[in-house]
Amino acid sequence: MATARTAPEQEDDVMTDKLTVSVLGTGIMGAAMARNLARAGHDVRAWNRTRAKAEPLSAGGVHIAESPAEAVRDADVVLTVLHDAAAALDVMRQAAPALRPGTAWVQSTTAGVEGIGKLADLAREHELVFFDTPVLGTREPAEAGQLLVLAAGPAESRNKVAPVLEAVGARTVWTGEDGAAGSATRLKLVANSWVLAATNAAGELVALAEALGVDPRAFFELIAGGPLDMGYLRLKAGLVLDGRTSPASFAVATAAKDARLIVEAARQHGIRLDVAAAGAERLARAAAQGHGDEDMAAAYFASFEESSSA
Q1: Phi/psi at 165 (5° precision)
Q2: Range of the domain at 244
Q3: Mean pLDDT across the chain, nearest whole number?
Q4: Region 88-96: what's the mean pLDDT?
Q5: What is the mean predicted confidence (pLDDT) over 182-207?
Q6: Residues 173 and 218 both lie in one domain
Q7: Which end of the chain is more exposed for a tag (fewer CB within 10 A), N or C?
Q8: pLDDT > 50? residue 2
Q9: What's the pLDDT at 309?
Q10: Element spanning 168, H or E
């Protein structure tokens, strides 16, 4: 017969799951992840290169650190959510003097195949337990703690990082036991290649319809409920049509970086991705026109010689 749990037993369980988590990088994704970790009861310390971007987190109980080293001191888990592999390497090298051997490093920066290898090398150098953990999702699911986490790392240490992954995501898909091999990062690049292709297609669809004097919404009525209909296409096209490319769910500049990583990874493996390469160029052009901080749907503006407002 089952016995009721006493209040002290319940309290012990809660305390066992509480971790000290360092979040390095508080952009769109990192800030949301830090908030959700704090809401889950963890002791969260955050650092961002531009401190003002991290300051609002203090209202939710997050300690804002002055340096990466301060942020990671005595941390159980370090979570990196930075722009690219170069930024993650730089920041973790700054944090190195305060890192303890055996600390878990949950690396969620989209770093690319080559980049993830360099980050894993740094982890080995400092005897960290390395997890390759990119995420799928944008601002809204990040804020709701509903990201899809792709993860690779040693099975014997997964319980240590499980509370962190559960706080930021709705589901974790394990792709392997060797984070250095980058199996999670590779799957993320494949997924992103589809997302970016669909986003660029949405922008071109709207631009072409407008140029030909066709109401873009007539196209959506045409395909409604059929095999060509797609919610994501409607979502991104709708942002353009409604002039709602700000604030960004996922910024043009970040999408352009991810697109370059996809093209580079393919090239390194002897594959030519013409659509992805063209998409990367479109995103870069939209960023150069001044739309880098807008939602990636603003790649639409790359269809025009001059930058224009929605």
Answers
A1: -65, -35
A2: 186-303
A3: 93
A4: 98
A5: 97
A6: no
A7: N
A8: no
A9: 52
A10: helix 158-168
Domain's final residue, options 133, 149, 181? 181
pTM of the model: 0.90
Comparing CA positions, the residue from 103, 121, 119 lying closest to residue 157 is 103
How far is the C-alpha of 185 from the C-alpha of 182, rounded, in Å? Answer: 5
The whole-angstrom separation of Cα 291 and Cα 211 is 21
22 and 145: one domain? yes
Positive or negative CA dihedral for 230, 112, 89, 162?
A: positive
Counted domains in the chain: 2
My answer on whether 164 and 201 are in the same domain is no
Amino acid at 248: A
142 and 231 fall within a common domain: no
In a domain, 2, yes or no: no
Domain boundary among 181, 204, 233: 181
The mean pLDDT value for 61-89 works out to 97
3-state SS class at 128: coil
DSSP state of 270: T
Q: Are residues 32 and 169 in the same domain?
A: yes
Over residues 39-51, the pLDDT tens digits come to: 999 999 999 999 9
